[in-house]
Amino acid sequence: MNFFKLLWILQKLLARVPIKLIKTDFKISARTINSNNITCIYKSNELVANSSYKITHGNEFRRILKVDNSVLNTKTGVIWSNNKLLLESTFWNYEDLLRWEPRPFAPKRLHGNYYSLPDNGFYHFLIEDLPRYIQAKNFGGDCKTLIGKESRYLTEVISLLSPGNAKLISYPVRVESLYISEKIKESLFSTEDLNILHSGFAEFRKFYHGFRIFISRKDHKGSKYLTRGLTKKNEIENFFKDLGFKIVYLEDLSFSQQIELCSHAEIIAGFHGAGLSNIVWADSGIKVIEITNTRVTTHFEHLSKICGHKFLRFSIQSNLSDAQRFIN
């Protein structure tokens, strides 16, 4: 096994030991300090949330940053600058990160300029990380992209956006320069982010508003359904089939096929899960039905609002006729 990868595995194991002798603050914000290692090269036209703790007077726009001599966790996209975690590199809460994101010790050094495209799961990849990557790439020039994992959707996106110009490294590295688009906690997905995705993958969005799509998921052990309280899977799927919905399993489709399929939809329904984030590819004004029970979040309601979709959160405890009235 690679020495640097083994060292990183050991660090992560030690970080999970529940013993904290000294409580130390290891975080910084590029919004509140001046650093010779961090340079703003662009300010977007998008106003970030006024409630963000990172915002100071005169810095209310999302920024593209060039971060020099920083340490990058290629899997999560978290950056350490001057031995402190850079808050603008992650959407995760700092307190949560302390449990699984130790400060890398003796990372391998890479020369040159880079982008980062992390993989924190499909929803986070599509909604949070991909728009930031594309935006940074538009302003940083011809740099290599660092990835920490070869998931199917990530490798396909790389083949479309940066063919032959990516490097897989599954452990933290110290890079000469890194270009990033700030991640602002109170602005997870915006109209500008939606436009960035649509522009980046316009060739795969082929509108034909005739499809009713039900996004299911393959789950042989049943644990994914049970953790969401979805105990009526077959009953619900049969109900939507009778209303003319096509049951689809997006894990069987490539990234570009998912875009094309969802751009055809007039109604998209599905169980609460990452696959439902593909509503961002549909034309504005479609109907979206999120089916859930124990998992109640505003993720897909927020996406629907940004996309201009009509949204219904449907609990399996409710009468199916409620969903039918929304569809009709």
How does this model look, in words?
- With 328 residues, this protein is α/β, with parallel strands linked by helices.
- The chain folds into 2 domains: 3-200, no CATH class; 204-327, Flavodoxin domain (Rossmann fold), CATH 3.40.50.360.
- Helices cover 30% and strands 26% of the residues.
- It contains 10 helices and 14 strands.
- The chain has helices spanning 3-15, 94-97, 122-140, 152-161, 191-200, 223-227, 233-242, 255-263, 299-307, 320-327; strands at 27-28, 38-47, 61-72, 79-81, 84-86, 108-116, 144-147, 166-168, 173-181, 211-216, 246-249, 265-271, 287-292, 310-315.
- The strands form 2 sheets. Strands 1, 2, 3, 4, 5, 6, 7, 8 and 9 form a 9-stranded mixed β-sheet that branches.
- Helix 3 (122-140) crosses helix 5.
- The longest helix is centred in the middle third of the chain and has 19 residues, at 122-140.
- It is globular.
- It starts with a helix and ends with a helix.
Summarize the structure.
This protein is of the alpha/beta class and 328 residues long.
Helix run count = 10
Total strand segments = 14
Summed over residues and divided by their number, the pLDDT gives a mean of 86
Please trace the helix and strand order, writing H or E for each element: HEEEEEHEHEHEEHEHHEHEEHEH
Oligomer: single chain
How many structurally independent domains? Answer: 2
Main β sheet profile: 9 strands, mixed
Structural class: alpha/beta
Distance between the termini: 58 Å
What Rg do the Cα atoms give? Answer: 21 Å
